[in-house]
Amino acid sequence: MARYYEDLGVGDVIDYGEYTTDKGEMIDFASRWDPRPFHVDEAFAADTLYGQLTASGVHTMAMFIRICNRATADWQVRGALGYEELRFPTAVLAGDVLHGRTTVIAKRLSKSRPEYGIVTTHETMTNQHGATVLDFKVSVLMERRPDPKS
Amino acid sequence: MARYYEDLGVGDVIDYGEYTTDKGEMIDFASRWDPRPFHVDEAFAADTLYGQLTASGVHTMAMFIRICNRATADWQVRGALGYEELRFPTAVLAGDVLHGRTTVIAKRLSKSRPEYGIVTTHETMTNQHGATVLDFKVSVLMERRPDPKS
Fold this sequence. Notes:
Two copies of one chain form a homodimer. Chain A has 150 residues and is α+β, with helices and mostly antiparallel strands. Chain A has a single domain (5-143), classed as Thiol Ester Dehydrase, Chain A (Roll), CATH 3.10.129.10. The first copy, chain A, is 23% helix and 37% strand. Chain A contains four helices and five strands. Chain A has helices at residues 23-33, 37-40, 42-46, 57-71; strands at 13-20, 77-87, 97-109, 116-126, 132-143. In chain A, strands 1-3-4-5-2 form a five-stranded antiparallel β-sheet. The A-B interface holds A 32-36, 56-58, 61-63, 65-66, 69, 80-88, 136 and B 32-36, 56-58, 61-63, 65-66, 69, 80-88, 136. Strand 2 (77-87) of chain A pairs antiparallel with strand 2 (77-87) of chain B.
């Protein structure tokens, strides 16, 4: 069922579910897009602070977007206006069970296009120890619920 | 040659070079990570504002990180502290020739760890028409040049 601007309220929390990381996937992704030694070279990574490979930040974003899309497929979002305070506070490791969620922190009608609403959310992903691995705020343009009389 | 905190000055511009987008790669990436119809379904995309598929924002970030890494492999960066004002002002289309660059906008020593410096940059990527497709600021932790006397 389509969800419109009117269907989200400040304080609402939406659960995106889980994503389990995989070492092979981490290496494949980073080899293609972010081939720094601590993402792709196990021998190098063994000597770092973590003692093992860490996921690329872009891969962490990709995993998050994957579970976010699955959970919000029925949201009538027409575009992202901007992302703020994007952080990767804790390294993502192979075998981590990541859990994404979002909280609605603000909403208002668009001034220039009042047929749309602007919803601001606080998006986070935590690992199996409760540590935050991804944290940002985003404002998106959402369609308003069609007038049943029109 | 390794580049340290001392080697970057406010106002410096670093060119990351180019990345040419590919429709098959756009569909492959989005199918895996961001399978919304305007990224993966050509028939659907034909009826949108752009009349064709657009690249996923995560894919756009990945392409940028790829050329950034290639150009900054010798920078002694030890981590990203945070990203601000991340925007995707123009859609990325198949066949676009994207051009990345960064400008150093601030630098200071870390207060808590003065053996590191913090460098803030303004990162942008434009298409072949000069329109900005990606824009953000990031602060990174950089190693200071080792003391030759120590």
